[in-house]
Specification:
The structure is a single chain. With 314 residues, the chain is of the alpha+beta class. The protein is 33% helix and 24% strand. It is built from two helices and twelve strands; from the N terminus they run H-H-E-E-E-E-E-E-E-E-E-E-E-E. It is elongated and about 135 Å long.
Length: 314
C-alpha cells in the first residue's frame, strides 16, 4: 500500500476501532460482546499455534539438554570412576587368590618332604646389567635365615640363599650359570650334577655314561652333607633331551626345570631339614595314561539271507 493521505486516514481509523473494542472487552468481563469472536479466533488459530509450538519444542529441548549436559558429564565421570575402582578390586582379589593358591601348593610340597620352611615374598630381582640370576626375598637374619639354605616353592627347587641381611636375603636361582646341584633320577637312582644355563634347560652330567635315560624322566635333589646348601628330594625338573652316548665316562642330558624363574612370587626357605630322605615322595603323581577305546563291529545278518549263510543261485 502506498503512503497517501487516504491510507493514513484508514490506519488511524483502524487503530481507533481497535482501542474501542479493547475498552468494551475489558468493561464487559466474562459477558463481553466480543467473547464469541475471540473464541472463534482461538478455534481458527489454535491448531496453528500448536503446530508452531511442536516445531519449536525440539529446539527448546536441545537447549535444555545443553544446560543439563554438565550434570550428565559429572554422572558419567562418577560411573567411570566407580567402574575403575571395581576393576581394581577384582584385580586385587584375583591376585590374592593366586597368591593363596601358590602358598597352598608350597605348603603341600613342604608337607610331602617334611621340610620346615619360612615363607617369603620375592621383592626384587638381580641387576639387569649383570649375568647372574638372583632375587631378593623379604626375610633375613632376624627371621632365622642363614647362608646356604635351600629355597623352594610349590613346583620345586628355586635356588639357595647366598647373602643374608637383617630383614632381606639374596637367592641364587637354579638357572644361574654359577649354580650347581647334585641330582638323582627318579626310580633308577642315577646320580649327576645339574648346572644352570640362564633361560635354557639345565645341563646335567650323569656319572654313569651308560645310564638308560629317556625323555620325560624326572629328577630330584640328591642332598648335601649336613643338608647345606641342599636338602634331598626337592623336585628339579624333567628330561627334555638326551645326548647320544659316545662311550664317555659321563652322559649329558638336558632338563626343563619345574619352576618358572620369571614368575616367582611366593617362596619358602627350608630352615629345618627332613629327618629322612623323602626320596620321590615330593614329586607329583604321574598322570595316568588315557586308555585307547576299543571299537567292536558286530555284523547283523539280513532277514532275507538264507539260514545256512550261502547265497542262493539265481
Amino acid at each position: 500500500m502506498r503512503d497517501t493521505r487516504e491510507s493514513r486516514l484508514l490506519l488511524v481509523l483502524l487503530i481507533a476501532i481497535a482501542f474501542a473494542l479493547i475498552t468494551v472487552d475489558i468493561r464487559g468481563g466474562e459477558d463481553s460482546p466480543v467473547d464469541g469472536a475471540r473464541r472463534g479466533a482461538a478455534t481458527v488459530f489454535g491448531p496453528i499455534e500448536d503446530g508452531v509450538s511442536t516445531a519449536v519444542d525440539p529446539v527448546g529441548n536441545a537447549i535444555q539438554a545443553v544446560k543439563d549436559s554438565g550434570d550428565r558429564h559429572d554422572r558419567v565421570t562418577q560411573l567411570e570412576r566407580a567402574n575403575a575402582e571395581l576393576k581394581a578390586k577384582l584385580g586385587s582379589d584375583d591376585r590374592n587368590r593366586s597368591r593363596s593358591a601358590q602358598l597352598d601348593k608350597m605348603l603341600k610340597t613342604a608337607g610331602a618332604g617334611q621340610y620346615g620352611i619360612k615363607g617369603a615374598e620375592v621383592i626384587a630381582i638381580g641387576a639387569a646389567q649383570g649375568f647372574s640370576w638372583t632375587v631378593t626375598i623379604d626375610v633375613g637374619a632376624n627371621d632365622g635365615i642363614k647362608r646356604d639354605m635351600t629355597v623352594l616353592n610349590g613346583d620345586g627347587l628355586v635356588g639357595r640363599v647366598t647373602t643374608v641381611g637383617p630383614g632381606t636375603a639374596t637367592v641364587l636361582l637354579a638357572n644361574d650359570p654359577d649354580f650347581t646341584v647334585g641330582t638323582r633320577m627318579e626310580s633308577t637312582d642315577e646320580l649327576g650334577f645339574a648346572s644352570g644355563q640362564g633361560d635354557r634347560p639345565l645341563r646335567v652330567e650323569l656319572l654313569n655314561g651308560k645310564a638308560k635315560i629317556k625323555k620325560g624322566d624326572r629328577l630330584v635333589t640328591f642332598g648335601s652333607q649336613a643338608d647345606k646348601p641342599f636338602v634331598p628330594g626337592v623336585p628339579v625338573g624333567l628330561v627334555s633331551r638326551v645326548d647320544p652316548s659316545g662311550g664317555d665316562l659321563t652322559r649329558t642330558i638336558y632338563v626343563t626345570p619345574f619352576v618358572s624363574f620369571s614368575k616367582l612370587d611366593i617362596v619358602g626357605v627350608v630352615v629345618q631339614a627332613p629327618r629322612k630322605d623323602p626320596r620321590d615322595e615330593v614329586l607329583p603323581a604321574k598322570p595316568k595314561p588315557t586308555p585307547t577305546p576299543t571299537v567292536t563291529v558286530t555284523v547283523t545278518p539280513s532277514a532275507n539271507a538264507p539260514a545256512d549263510g550261502l547265497q542262493q543261485e539265481q
